[in-house]
Design brief:
Layout: H1 2-15, H2 22-39, H3 42-46, E1 49-60, E2 66-71, H4 73-81, E3 89-101, E4 104-115, E5 118-132, E6 135-145
Parallel strand pairs: 1-6
Antiparallel strand pairs: 1-2, 3-4, 4-5, 5-6
């Protein structure tokens, strides 16, 4: 009887995802963020974003100067949910590289962005996450943006 209970407990915990590695849990948090992003659902995005988060971007202007800006997360949410229904966008994520040490994680992810099914730009997303009592939350996001060096 004891063995049956242990097998059922094992199957139950695996079904709930308790056996995921920390790297898989981090990837899942980032995947939830982008599901919300593509669905224009800020509530879904907020599930995996910490209360205090830094969002930044960097690119190179046409004049060759480095552009670097910080965006308020609430502005990002507002911009995402206000995208008109007729506008299609997709950020294709590839080449996940995730490192985890205890309660901190870093994810480096290549992406290609499409607007109305047309190539727009590509770059890298770099996420920093903290595990708050078993929940991975994004605390920092920076991305690069450009049109060159893309695999589109």
């Amino acid at each position: 009887m004891k063995i049956v209970v242990l097998v059922i407990l094992y199957l139950f915990t695996n079904a709930l995802g308790f056996s995921q590695s920390p790297e898989e849990q981090v990837k899942k948090a980032i995947t939830i963020f982008f599901k919300g992003f593509h669905a224009k659902d800020s509530l879904m995005m907020k599930q995996v974003v910490a209360d205090h988060v830094v969002v930044q971007t960097t690119s190179v202007t046409q004049e060759g100067k480095t552009l670097f800006k910080t965006e308020d997360i609430h502005t990002l949410y507002k911009n995402i949910v206000s995208i008109p229904a007729k506008v299609e966008f997709k950020e294709e994520l590839t080449n996940f590289s995730i490192q985890v040490d205890r309660t901190m994680a870093n994810a480096w992810i290549d992406y290609t962005f499409f607007l109305n099914k047309e190539f727009s730009h590509c770059g890298v997303n770099s996420f920093q996450l903290i595990n708050f009592d078993g929940n991975w939350k994004i605390i920092y996001l920076i991305d690069t943006r450009g049109k060159e060096g893309c695999e589109n």
